[in-house]
Amino acid sequence: MSTSILSSADEATISKVCETYSLKPTQFHALHSRSAAAKATAYCPYSRFRVGCSILTENDQHIDGANVENAAYPVGTCAERVAFGKAVTEGHRKFKAVAVATDISPPASPCGMCRQFIREFCELQTPIFMFDKDGNFVVMRLEQLLPLSFGPEALPPPGSLPARG
Ligand SMILES: O=c1ccn([C@H]2C[C@H](O)[C@@H](CO)O2)c(=O)[nH]1
Ligand SMILES: [Zn+2]
Predict the structure, then answer these.
(1) Is the Cβ atom of 110 under 6 angstroms away from ligand 1?
(2) Which of 4, 21, 52, 77 would you call most buried, defined as having the most Cβ atoms within 10 angstroms of its Cβ?
(3) Structural domain for 128, as ranges
(4) Does residue 118 sit within a domain?
(5) How many domains are there within the chain?
(6) Which residue of 78, 80, 103, 142 sits with most ligand 1 atoms within 8 Å of its CB, as the best mutation to test the pocket?
(7) Inside any domain, residue 6
(8) For residue 155, what are the CA distances in angstroms to 145, 158, 165?
(9) Which CATH number do you get for residue 29?
(10) Helix, strand, coil proportions of the chain in percent (round to 5)?
């Protein structure tokens, strides 16, 4: 047995993973193909590091995104935040799974800022798939990628705040 957390993309592994994360194999395949395809839409002339993201909404829609860089380097945005920004502004608030695809192996995982951004909108149990160029993947729940996290439930409900703080 391999000690690597990188899973191969064979159907037996995929079916076991789908059972664990309550996904259908068709949803898994769509998460992979859409996140991989989204890499082609990246604007990354500075790093030349393409990242694609696909999010599966609670009603089985996919929202995709890719990284968008900027000549003022820190202004650039990751694929995950582009995809979640699109999803949220299109009215989606609940998500079943997130996929991120890169061309490196082992695959890249979401940066710290994206983990927190995802934390705002996803349950801690939400699976985050990280694919390499060949479709091999690492999968972790959000709570594994961002332990002891800070989220919206820690704050008082907006309506309970005094008019001025
Ligand atoms: O999970 C990640 C990691 C990096 N990037 C982007 C940011 C930048 O454009 C490029 C290199 O860091 O990759 C993402 O989009 N998502
Ligand atoms: Zn990021």
Answers:
(1) yes
(2) 52
(3) 11-146
(4) yes
(5) 1
(6) 78
(7) no
(8) 22, 8, 14
(9) 3.40.140.10
(10) 35, 20, 45
pLDDT, tens digit (0-9, with 9 covering 90-100), for 7-42: 998 999 999 999 999 999 999 999 999 999 999 999
Mutate to test the pocket of ligand 1, among 43, 67, 130 (most ligand atoms within 8 A of CB): 67
**Cβ neighbours of 154 (radius 10 Å):** 7
Q: DSSP readout, 78-98?
A: -HHHHHHHHHHHTT---EEEE
**Global pTM value:** 0.95
| 101: its two tokens | 């695809």
The rounded Å distance from CA 39 to ligand 1 centre is: 11
Is 143 labeled as catalytic in the residue annotation? no
Q: What distance in angstroms lies between residue 164's CA and the mean position of ligand 1's atoms?
A: 38
Asked if the structure places residue 74 within a domain, the reply is yes
Separation in Å, CA 29 to CA 36, 119, 151: 11, 24, 30
pLDDT score, position 1: 44
- To the question of whether residue 44 is assigned a binding role by annotation, the answer is no
The interface predicted TM-score (ipTM) is: 0.99
Please indicate, yes or no, if residue 165 is contained in any of the structural domains. Answer: no
Average pLDDT of the segment spanning 105-114: 98
